[in-house]
Amino acid sequence: MDGQPESIKLNRLKFYPVMMFAIVMGISGLTIAYQKAAEFIGFPHVIGHTMMYVALGIFASVSLIYLAKLISYPKAVLNEWKHPVRINFFSAVSISMLMLAIITRHDFPTMGAWFWYAGAAMHTYMTLYTISFWINHNQEIAHSNPAWFIPIVGNVLIPVGGIGLASKMVLIYFFSVGVFFWIIFLSIVLNRVIFHHQLAQKFLPTLFIMLAPPAVAFIAYFKLYHTIDMFAHFLYSIALFFTFMLAFMFRRFLGLKYFISWWAFIFPLAAMAIAAMLMYHKMHDSFNLYLSYAMMGVATLMTLVVLYQTIVHMFKKEICIQE
Description:
By secondary structure, the protein is mainly alpha-helical. The chain has helices at residues 6-14, 21-40, 45-72, 74-81, 91-104, 109-136, 150-162, 168-195, 212-225, 230-248, 250-253, 266-283, 286-315.
């Protein structure tokens, strides 16, 4: 590393954040979107197939580096585990596994099953631990932010990849827990952003996470019941509303200083793209077809922008530093 002292290298490892798993979530979400785009709107299959290996490689790299941090700096990992905000990003590990299960289940079904079982078990623990952590420790209203949705999104994601791997009753349990706490936490987060201090600039990208629960819940509901009924339309319409709202607020996101939290843009955009493609596939209306193309374009463009900024700031050594 261009003659960098060993002590500095190790310190950079010490400050390697668990939020790096948001990169895996973002790339995995876009991979699934391209796989579905090939199935629903005629995109080339090779894109999603190639990105599958990219997502697996990124997950392996991020996991190995964080494991090295755990071995070298266990206290630093424990501090993140006890942090009222960063604790939510540990759920990104299990969500990454669940998404990789969806990505690989057709080409490598055994690998996909292992990813799903490991991800579902880990996410069950993370959900119980995170919510009990909030109950057992007084939380400041300033600690609440859209990242709180991360442990919730995983619960509605479990049924998406769990068909054929677990009973319908088990999958409905996770779906119900996810939707129930999504409604509760949405009220808390809206109360925080409307009536209290504005989010810190580094957390503004996490506003996009509000789009993910209804979009993923819509996909999960269809997977469970194979119908577009009133409740499916409700979930999709709420996801559509958040899409319009975030687009309406686009000036708020212009000129933001780069933080690793920028990766929070990608997964929700990809989830909405998949939801729009699924709705088009079932309803065959031009609005959702155009929306599918638009969301795929926006998700892809944002991924390229965020990836470029991440690489630039890595070379500037502005990532993995003490905050």
